[in-house]
Sequence to fold (454 residues):
Amino acid sequence: MKIFLDTIGCRLNQAEIESLARQFRAAGHEIVATAAEADLAVVNTCTVTAEAASDSRAAIRRAKRLGAGDIVVTGCWATLEPDKAASLPGVTRIVPNLQKDSLAADLLGLPQEFFDLEPIARQPLPGLHQRTRAFIKVQDGCDNACTFCITRLARGASRSRPLDEIVTDIDSALNGGAQEIVLTGVHLGSWGLDFQPARRIPDLVSALLARTSAPRLRLSSLEPWDLEADFFSLWHDPRLCRHLHLPLQSGSASVLRRMARKTTPDSFAALVQSARAAIPEVAITTDIIVGFPGETDEEFAETLEFVKSMQFAGGHVFSYSARPGTPAARMKGQVRGDAPSPVLEPGLSRRNRDYHAPCRNRDYHAVKARSATLRTVLAESAEAYRRKFIGKTMPVLWEATSILTDEGWQIEGLTDNYLRVTAIAAEPRWNRVDAVHLTDLRENGLTGKQINTV
Ligand code: SF4
Fold:
């Protein structure tokens, strides 16, 4: 069969779809770059925001429109709203998250052991944006109870993959040419806590540094309460990327309490200080939610001040969107958006509709303004972080070639500390590493000059 794989949302979904590709290839099937040439399309959906759920539906419709044969839908949105997913044109099967690991085996009628034994190299998915980084799932699910979070409902309880399986997966990605391994999970920092005896994320990272030859090992998002200061001593190994993504969500202690986050601004600041003391030039990035139910002007001002003081190397700002079924969606002080909200769609409970009843677009615009202010602050601190590297020479892993100019190919890649660098090269250098002298700032990155290959 010719199989098209599409994914929406987080790095974990990306990791899963890459793993599926490896399994389908191992069974002799071909992964194709577009749905137009596919006998089968698998769409891995997301529901973290209303927009992500809408993107998921659009991806399914696009696969049908382009002419994919059967369409199989899995992922968080399909798990929480299976009837809606099944009603979309062309969808022949819904696979909930808990059965996703055996999706290929079930579809192909093969025993799961077939894939456990098959040593085929894991390669990037075909298409315009082939990845140089391999996303490896090490954990799924979450036992926390952040009140805004739909992901934990869609993914279930936390469960960790055994170390040996992860090592096999990483070796397979390295055999396929991956230059960078990114460890992903819904709640990555809880890896190993469900084992007997329990293990912890530092055990995983030190074991992977010892047992694999990954040239670069990167950790995706880590919740701040999972980390202790001595964790950062592992960064003595230069293969560990100096980049920590620590979701803050709010810089206000009272909003953090309403979110049921297990952190405070003070403990977050102390953690950042420990990381910076142990890891020179570490890039610390974050996520913030703006417009959480009941967020007052004072609470937003606290967040703004805190974010300024943290001098993040970058971050994402999300306008809060109520996800049906989460505790936050039932809190007072919801901000109603201008755009149609998914909670007004037919089929949802009356209770879910009621909490959106008062239309307060004044608040909606206030949230938009807050988001813009916070984005400006983050852009300024990100630029200040990038500026420190002008004049330095750093290794860059090239991950994209855009255009051929009169001077040569324009190439783009990442340093280990997540600086996005562009340069002009005599040839496309996809998936290669060069030493680059960083010369200037550009929007969201830096420009540089290739020195040599490293
Ligand atoms: S830590 Fe919180 S935000 Fe993250 S997946 Fe778990 S419940 Fe959701």
